[in-house]
C-alpha cells in the first residue's frame, strides 16, 4: 500500500510538471454564441501601445495597440478585423452625448479602419499571429463628422474591434463573455476607451514675487519674494496640485502663517483654477494675466477679499506650457 501511495505521488508530480511546461491551453472560448472561436489578445507593450490622445497635440496623436489572434489554428483563421468608433462626451447635469447619436436607443458607430487577415504576421518568438492597429486622431475625428476645434479634454472615443473568421463568424464586444473581456489569461476586451487627455507637469518649487497685496487684516507694501511648492495631490489625478502657500507670502508679511491650509491648483487642459480652502475656510480664485514661458503672472483673491498679484518664475529648462491660461 505504501508503494502504491508513493507511485501515485510521483505520478501527480510528473503531471503537474508536464502541465506547467505548456505555454498555452487550446482556446475553449466562452462566447455567448460559440463554443470555440478566436479572440484578440491585447499585447501589453508600454513602449508601443498608445491608448489615449493628447489634447494639445491631436495632429500627432494616434490610437495604437498590438493584438494577437488566438485560435485553434494559431491565429490563421482571421479573415478581417473591423475597427468601429464613436465619440462620447459627459455633459454635466445632462449625461452622455454620443456622436453619431444613438438611434432608437441603439448604439451607432462608424468604421474607421479594416485590417485584413493577411496583415497578421508570425515571428519565431510568438506562437500566434499579431498585428498593429494604428489609427490617427485626425482620422477618428473626421470619421465621426467632427473637427479638431470641436474636441474637448475629457472626451472619449470608444474603439470597438470586430473580428471575422474564415467561417464568417464575427467575434466582438457584443458576444464576448466576462472572462474573455477582463480575464488575465484572455485580456481581450474588444473595446478600448481612448480618452482625450491633457498632460500636466507643474509639480515643483518655484520662486515668486508678490505685489499689490491688499487685506482688511493687515498690509504689506512693496514686493515680497519667496518660494512656493506645487505637489501632486493624488497620483490618480496628476493635474491637481497642493499649494504650499496660496497667499504667496502675504500672510507672513503681517505676522500670520499659512499653517494647515489646503488650497489646490487645478490644471484643466491649461485652464488654471483654485479649489479647497485655507485654515479659516476661505476659498480662492485665480486670474491669469500673462504667460511668457519664463514668467506666469496672475491675481489671486480669497473670500475675505484679500488679494495679491504674483509673478511665478519657471525653473531652468522647464518653461511654463504655452497652453496655461
Concise overview:
With 325 residues, the protein is mainly β. It has four helices and 18 strands.
Attribute tags:
single chain, 325 residues, mainly beta, Lipocalin, 2 domains, 4 helices, 41% strand, disordered N terminus, signal, DUF1735 domain-containing protein
Major β-sheet, in short? 8 strands, antiparallel
Order of helices and strands: HEEEEEEEHEEHEEEEHEEEEE
List unreliable stretches of 5+ residues: 1-32, 179-186
CATH topology type of the largest domain: Immunoglobulin-like
How do the strands of the widest beta sheet line up side by side? 15-14-13-12-11-18-17-16
The CATH architecture classification of the largest domain is Sandwich
Count the beta strands. Answer: 18
Portion in beta strands: 35-45%
* Apparent shape: elongated
Topology:
Elements: H1 2-21, E1 39-42, E2 52-54, E3 62-70, E4 78-91, E5 95-99, E6 110-116, E7 130-136, H2 137-143, E8 156-165, E9 170-171, H3 178-182, E10 191-197, E11 204-214, E12 224-234, E13 237-243, H4 250-253, E14 262-268, E15 271-277, E16 284-291, E17 295-302, E18 307-313
Parallel strand pairs: 2-10
Antiparallel strand pairs: 1-3, 3-7, 4-5, 4-6, 4-8, 8-9, 8-10, 11-12, 11-18, 12-13, 13-14, 14-15, 16-17, 17-18
Word description of this protein:
- The chain is mainly beta and 325 residues long.
- It folds into two domains: 24-197, Immunoglobulins (Immunoglobulin-like), CATH 2.60.40.10; 204-313, Lipocalin (Beta Barrel).
- It is 11% helix and 41% strand.
- It has helices at residues 2-21, 137-143, 178-182, 250-253, and strands at residues 39-42, 52-54, 62-70, 78-91, 95-99, 110-116, 130-136, 156-165, 170-171, 191-197, 204-214, 224-234, 237-243, 262-268, 271-277, 284-291, 295-302, 307-313.
- The chain has an eight-stranded antiparallel β-sheet with strand order 15-14-13-12-11-18-17-16, with no helix packed on it. Strands 2, 4, 5, 6, 8, 9 and 10 form a seven-stranded mixed β-sheet that branches. Strands 1-3-7 form a three-stranded antiparallel β-sheet.
- The chain is elongated and about 80 Å long.
- Keywords: Signal.
- It comes from Mongoliibacter ruber.
- Residues 1-25 form the signal peptide.
- This is DUF1735 domain-containing protein.
